[in-house]
Specification:
Blueprint (H helix, E strand, L loop, with lengths): L1 H32 L8 E7 H7 L9 H10 L4 E5 L9 H6 L9 E10 L2 H8 L4 H10 L4 E10 L4 E7 L9 E3 L4 H8 L4
Antiparallel strand pairs: 1-2, 1-3, 3-4, 4-5, 5-6
């Protein structure tokens, strides 16, 4: 009996955490989208709201009253999203992520990036161009390119959630959402917790 109760409790906690992560990542994408396209990489720490309030009651001043009074107290997995300013300089995304490490008080992380996506034949043609400026000009001139914003979040426990928005379908009803839509980015973000 004890094992069944423990398993049920762990399952409920995992479901609450997954739901909180999906909500935090979706809200982060909406926040980023409000600032338009052509943005730099943005990184966010994910912190359990209830724990943040316990550690510093003044955090309540940053949140709306309903979040503080109702949600944070009833859902221990509810997440606060804290944008990280002053990211270290990096030549590319891989090097940026390699420089990130999170303290134990951070329960997850999210990242927002924009990328150009091409059909496979055009991608092969782009990869054959060795000059970076020439490759960028080629990419920007392609009428079949698609601009995609990816917001990916992960928790220390291994849960992930991704939200993708395309510039050609730039509305909240056209978001693609799922656990591992961008597996390479999920794994790279997970590695910041090792």
């Amino acid at each position: 009996m004890h094992d069944e109760a423990t398993t049920a409790g762990a399952g409920r906690a995992a479901a609450l955490a997954a739901g909180a992560l999906a909500r935090a990542v979706t809200e982060t994408e909406t926040h980023v989208a409000a600032h338009g396209w052509d943005q730099p990489v943005r990184v966010f720490a994910l912190v359990r709201t209830a724990e943040a309030l316990e550690a510093d009651p003044d955090v309540a001043d940053l949140l709306d009253a309903a979040t503080v009074e109702e949600e944070a107290r009833s859902n221990p997995e509810l997440l606060m999203v804290v944008e990280q300013d002053g990211l270290p300089p990096a030549a590319d995304l891989e090097h940026l992520l390699a420089q990130l490490a999170w303290p134990e008080s951070v329960h997850g992380a999210a990242i927002s990036i924009e990328r150009l996506v091409l059909p496979p034949a055009a991608q092969e043609e782009a990869e054959a161009i060795t000059d970076a400026a020439e490759r960028l000009a080629f990419l920007q001139e392609r009428p079949d390119r698609e601009d995609i914003r990816m917001v990916v979040g992960v928790l220390r426990g291994g849960q992930s959630w991704c939200v993708l928005r395309s510039r050609s379908h730039d509305d909240d009803a056209s978001l693609y959402q799922g656990e591992r839509l961008v597996p390479g980015l999920v794994e790279a973000l997970e590695a910041t917790f090792l």
